[in-house]
Structures are given as structure tokens and as C-alpha cells.
Amino acid sequence: MAWYLKLPTVVGRHMMCRRSFSIIPPVELLKHNGMGKNNSIAKKNYSTIPFSCYGGRHVVTVIPGEGIGPEMIDHVERIFDQLGIPVDFEHTELTGNSTEEQFELAVKAVRRNRIALKGNIATRIDDYKPSYNVRLRQKLNMFANIIHAKSIPGVICRHSGIDIIVIRENTEGEYSLLEHENVPGVVESLKVITREKSLQIAHFAFQYAKNNGRRKVTAVHKANIMKLGDGLFLECCDEVAQDYPEIELDKMIVDNTAMQLVSKPEQFDVMVMPNLYGNVINNIVAGLVGGAGLVPGVNIGRDIAMYEVGTRGAASDDVTGVDQSNPTAFILASALLVKHLGLTHYSDILTMSTKSVISDRGIYTRDIGGEATTHEMVDAILNLSLDNMEKHHLNSIKFKSIKQ
Amino acid sequence: YLDTVCLNMVNDPTQFDVLVMPNLYGDILSDLCAGLIGGLGVTPSGNIGTKSAIFESVHGSAPDIAGQDKANPTALLLSAVMMLRHMKFFDKAALIEKAVFSVIAENKILTGDLGGTSKCSEYTDEICRKLN
Q1: N or C: fewer beta carbons within 10 Å in chain A?
Q2: What is the nearest CA distance from B107 to chain A, expressed in angstroms?
């Protein structure tokens, strides 16, 4: 253990990691020999856990959060109800002001149903409580965050034809929540990168690329400066790439990536990166396809999935309750959730209708240059979905839902 | 927040004026903004301390086109303009900057990276002509 720092005891759990120090020579801590080249934990099969499903109806935890989350969840529930999608929502309250007990209840609720839909929870800067968003993800070990940014025809953007999948490591890196101030006015933050989690996310990214017919994975890093931390991440990507010879691995420094994304985004296919760069790249990529209101995202763990808006962030007070927010991201996230449950027909119709309302009908909200209100847009999506369901002969048989 | 700035920067960069931030975020955001205006070949930069200042262009050294009169001097020239402003030669800086922008806007004599076919010396001569 480094003698010059009094590190908190929680760091003991990270004994297997290399520290990202550049000035002081690195101390090689416990070398973990359990993780060999055939990393059994990283390669585990994620697909066979059943979900809560009673009488043909799935139960999904929903955390409305704050800001525009609650109104968006209302719209999603209305759509699901009208289309007859067999999903029951179990509501759990969690906001920036919640107590520790409420947080534990939320964690239990998500773990119980293993699938969740989440709104936004604000994290105040001025209080030193760690963010509930980050803690939720870490506690449930939702190690991967995926967003799929695809250009929607009809939305006016500088670039078109963008189809990028961004896979972001979700539980460590700069979000380890380890900071200390040994000398007043000098704060040190620990960025923790572990071999285990880097291998896990790299395997996940390559497997995802393979399953979805993608050809290239770009690893985004800053290993020229953080030679140990990001260097370890790159080493793990290299190791995993050998198991997937049909997929090309490309490495790019994060600042160059930002520049290339705004000038030539078509060169990117799947991108994988540690936590903080993922935050930045997620937002750049979402901005490129039209903004925060259009991109859904998912947090995935070994047997848990939580769907939310791709670029996380509680909306500010001026768009809450004024019926102007873009519901697309939430509706697409709920469609992905439905697909995850195996109800592919419902999911395809909902996704197709949402995109068609924007591209063909030209009904969209203020943030992408339209004039419709949220209600108008949701009604249009609902009506088009009902029409499409009739066309495809899907009976919206409504099982009586068990409302509490 | 960093992520909100990135999101809004890509959609509408004109809403921002001056941004201040720690080191890593600055690295990422400065390259992001450089990409928005045309790349590192036209982006000036300066490093300012309490006792001294260094102004430099941030593009690579391009060994493949070195010595062939092909490079675009705009980045270093605009960095020199920043240096003049730092030294309080505001009017001279404005003159040079106006000349450079008008040559680029005319779209006739440009180096290869900006889509033209002129040599570096021709581009520089044109800027000098504008100044006289």
C-alpha cells in the first residue's frame, strides 16, 4: 500500500488493480492469478435467467425519478395499456433527496424483477452524498452501458447516416467515488481500472459486435497520459481481440475521437471505452443524431437490465411540466425493454411507429425544430401503432392487469 | 456539466463564449471544438503562465509533407496573432487576422488540406498582398 497516502479501507477491495499514478513509481500490488487468458467470469452466458412473469404478464420495476421522468413514464404506461402490451409496472420512488432506506428498497425492487425502466435522478453538486445513479449501477453491477445512436430521417442534422453503438464501462474508472483531501486545497481523485472489469467490458463489446453483425470495435483511451490505467484497458482489449479474429480492433485517443466524431462520424461502428470518456462520447454522439431526446440507452449486468434515456440527466425546471419534452428516447427505451422480454412484434411496431411519426408525419417537439407538444406526439405514435397492429393482425388482447 | 456542454456544443456551438475547465476536459473539448471549425490545421492555441507564454499550433509535425511547400500555415499564423494580442498589439493582430480570414473566405488560393491546390508560399504571398 502506498505509504504516502492514507487511503480509505474501501480501497482494500481494489487491491488487484494497478494505480494510475504517474509521478510516483507504481507499486505492484497483489497480482491476481485467478484471471487467466480464458476469463471464465467475463465469458459467462448472460441469457438464461427467467424474468418475473405471472399469468402471461411481465412485471417491470419502474423508477420515475424526478424532472421529466414521471411524465414520460405516464406516457409510456398509457401506450402500453392501449396497445395491450402484457407488462405491469412496479413503481419505486427514488430521487436526489431520498434516504438510504429508500435507496435499498429501489435496489431490491430492481433485483427482484431483473428488468427496470428508469427516469432521471438529479445529483446535487453541493452535498457530498455519492450519486444514487452511480451507486445503483455499482450495487447491481450493471457493468455495461450501451447506447445506439442512429440517424432518424427527417431530423435535420449536419451529418446523416450515423449508426454508432457506444459501449461504456459503467462501474469503475473515474466514477469509483474515491476522493480525499490530505492537504487542505489539494484534492486527489482515484481513477480505478481493473483487469477483471476491462476484460469483461471488452468481451461484452466484441460479443455484442459479433451478435449484431458489426465489423469494427474502436477502443477509446488516453493511454499516452494515463499509461498504467488506460494502458491496462488497452491491453485487455488486445487480449480479447485475439478471440474474435473476424472483428477489427482500432484504438483512438479520446481527444482525436471527439474531433473525428464531429468531422467524419461514419468511420465509427462500435466503440468501447472506460467510464468518463463514455459519458463524453455518449453525449457527443447523441448530439450528432439530433439531441438528448432521441437516443435510448440500457445498463446491463450479468442478469439485470435497466433501460433509460441514453444521455442521462434530469431535465432542468424549465422543461418540467410544460409538455414540451421529446418523448422519443423514453418510448424507444421502452420498446427495447419489450424486445428484451421477448415480445418482438410489439417492440418492432412501437419502434417503427415512433420513427415514422418523426420521418413521415413530421410531428416532433421543439428540441428538434418542431412545434408539437409531448401529448400530441405521443398520441400520434399511439394511433400509428394501433393502426400498424391491426395491419399486422396483432390482437391487442388486454389481460386484466393487477393494479395495486 | 461536461456532458451537457458536449451535447449542446455539437448542436449549437454559438451559445458558448468562454469556457474554463480542468485539464482532461479541456483536452477533449478543445479538440471537439477544433473539429467543429475545420480541424487542427486552422486552430490556434496559447499556453499562458504568470511569467511567460508560449503560443503554438496543435497539429502534428506532418513529416510526410515537410519541406515541400505544401503545409497550411494558418494555425501557426493565428497563434502568432494571439501572441500579438497578448503583447497588446491589438490593431496589428486584427489586421493580420482579417487578411487571413478574407483569403480563406475568397476560396481561390488555398492549400491542399483546405481543398485548394496552391503552395504554402503562394498562400502566404496572398495574405501579404491583402495587408498592403
Answers
A1: C
A2: 20
What is the reported pTM?
A: 0.83
CB contact under 8 A, A262 and B35: yes
What is the interface pTM, i.e. ipTM, of the complex? 0.86
pLDDT tens digits, one per residue of A63-108: 998 888 899 999 999 999 999 999 999 999 998 888 899 999 999 9
Residue of A nearest to B59 (CA): A256
Structural contact between residues A323 and A302, judged by C-beta atoms closer than 8 angstroms: no
For the beta carbon of residue A243, count every other beta carbon within 10 angstroms: 16
Return the residue of A nearest to B35 by Cα. A259
Q: Convert the pLDDT of each residue in A21-30 to its tens digit.
A: 222 222 222 2
Residue numbers in B near A313 (CB within 8 A): 1, 3-4
Grid cell at residue A121: 435522478
CB atoms within 10 A of CB A63: 25
C-alpha cell at B90: 491589438
Long-range contacts of A175-180 (CB under 8 A, 24+ apart): A175/A134, A175/A275, A175/A276, A176/A14, A177/A130, A177/A131, A177/A134, A177/A135, A178/A8, A178/A10, A178/A11, A180/A5, A180/A6, A180/A7, A180/A8
The pLDDT tens digits of the residues spanning B33-80 come to: 999 998 888 999 999 999 999 999 988 888 888 888 888 899 999 999
Q: Which residue is closest to A156 within chain B, CA to CA?
A: B11
What is residue A316's predicted lDDT score, i.e. its pLDDT?
56
Beta strands in A130-278 (DSSP E): 144-150, 163-169, 179-183, 186-189, 216-221, 248-253, 270-273
Shortest alpha-carbon distance between residue B106 and chain A (Å): 22
